[in-house]
Design brief:
Rossmann fold, 2 domains, seven-stranded mixed β-sheet, six-stranded mixed β-sheet
């Protein structure tokens, strides 16, 4: 059994000496002789609603900075070290916009890492575009971020409309196990009323329409997400074949807890944010055979120069932070890696030239391939679908990445 403690572990503690890493105090200045210090700015949700994933994001950023600084790099023949200046946006878009202005106007930051969530990312986009500051983000997945013609936004992750659509494909392929033809399948959708979850919903509705499936329930949930009983009563009455829920960590925990408590019997249940909510660890019985959308998994065969393989990254992350790496941390580390790769190719700190180098990225990494289209989306990496089996996340789709076979229908609990 892996040892997990929570995400709020300083990278300065619990570090194995054999890793050979020298960890800087990332939120403070440091002296390294003649080395150039390149400051990346980041507003993160270290408190408030998104604090859990804000911590995952920070841990991913910090681990990548440490690794990059340990490896060393040069721009114009001069060594440089990365440094991150953090501010706590308190999970508030209004505060986030003020702090990004502060990073740019007062602190003189020329390069930004993204905040956590689509809503907070969306709030600061006008500022980075106005000041022409390149930003690489790892945790804003809503499609609308990439429909406004933003020139300085780049995202390493897949967009949220793609998160749960593989479930429909998978269940359609296995419809016979439910005693149905694919077009006879029905689905229920319960999503938080925020940009990310509504984009998940839009992707599901579009995929269902394409396949001619009937959506029998489409509920929008309030942000508190501490009670889904009204929605689940409807699910019991309507008896859909598939129940989709997207409401960040709290929604995932509430869903599996109340589905079990209210004895809601649905053949297929699919959620977002399973691993960051640590469902397999915290709710192993209730989450058994639930399908989970994930951007990344340690069993994938991705490799790159900075961390090695996906498994290498996961092992290092766990050694440093004492909990298993969620995909939010992995994609955050990948975002920093893209900056380092762009600096190496641009050989300048001119923001416009660095922006062009980022746009030309074609990078193999532990997280997966990274290549941006004209809107700033990473078009080289696919989502993966896992199923929780006996407290572990087993990749079941796509086929080339699968390490196990999907269990459909979900056995009665």
């Amino acid at each position: 059994m892996r040892m997990r403690r929570g995400p709020y572990v300083s990278p300065l503690k619990g570090l194995l000496a054999g890793l050979g890493l020298v960890l800087p105090l990332l939120s403070a200045g440091f002296a390294h002789g003649a080395d150039e210090a390149i400051t990346l700015g980041a507003t993160l949700s270290l408190t408030g609603k998104f604090a859990l994933n804000g911590a995952h994001t920070k841990n991913g950023y910090d681990l990548a900075v440490t690794r990059i600084n340990n490896r060393g790099g040069k721009i114009g023949g001069k060594p440089y070290r990365l440094h991150i200046r953090y501010y706590d946006d308190e999970s508030s878009p209004a505060r986030g916009t003020k702090l990004v202005e502060r990073l740019i106007q007062q602190d003189g930051v020329k390069f930004l890492l993204g905040p956590y969530s689509s809503g907070l990312t969306q709030a600061i986009l006008p500022i980075i575009e106005r000041h022409k500051i390149p930003m690489i983000e790892a945790n804003g997945a809503a499609r609308e971020l990439f429909t406004k013609g933003n020139r300085y936004l780049f995202a390493v992750l897949s967009t949220s409309d793609q998160y749960l659509t593989p479930v429909i494909d998978l269940v359609a392929e296995n419809a016979g196990k439910l005693g149905k033809k694919p077009q006879e399948l029905t689905l229920a959708i319960a999503t938080e009323d925020d940009p990310f979850a509504q984009d998940v919903r839009a992707g599901l509705l579009a995929e269902a329409a394409d396949r001619g499936l009937n959506c029998v329930l489409d509920d929008r949930l309030p942000s508190a997400l501490d009670d889904m009983s009204v929605t689940l009563d409807k699910v019991k009455a309507l008896k859909p074949d598939i129940l989709f829920v997207s409401g960040h960590e709290k929604g995932a925990l509430t869903a599996v807890t109340q589905i079990e408590a209210l004895r809601v019997d649905v053949p297929v249940i699919a959620l977002t944010h399973c691993d960051s909510a640590q469902l397999a660890e915290k709710r192993p019985t209730e989450s058994q055979h639930v399908f989970c959308a994930q951007q990344w998994h340690r069993s994938l065969k991705h490799k790159g120069k900075l961390f090695g393989s996906a498994e290498d990254f996961a092992t290092l992350f766990e050694q440093v932070y004492s909990y298993e790496a969620p995909y939010q941390a992995a994609q955050s580390a990948a975002a920093v890696y893209v900056f380092a790769d762009a600096f190496a190719r641009a050989q300048t700190l001119d923001p416009e030239k660095v922006r062009d180098a980022i746009a030309a990225t074609d990078l193999a990494s532990f997280y997966g391939p990274i290549k941006f289209d004209a809107t700033g989306k990473n078009v080289a990496k696919a989502m993966v679908l896992t199923q929780i089996v006996d407290g572990a996340y087993v990749v079941v789709a796509p086929d080339k990445a699968a390490t196990g076979e999907a269990v459909i229908p979900r056995p009665h609990h």
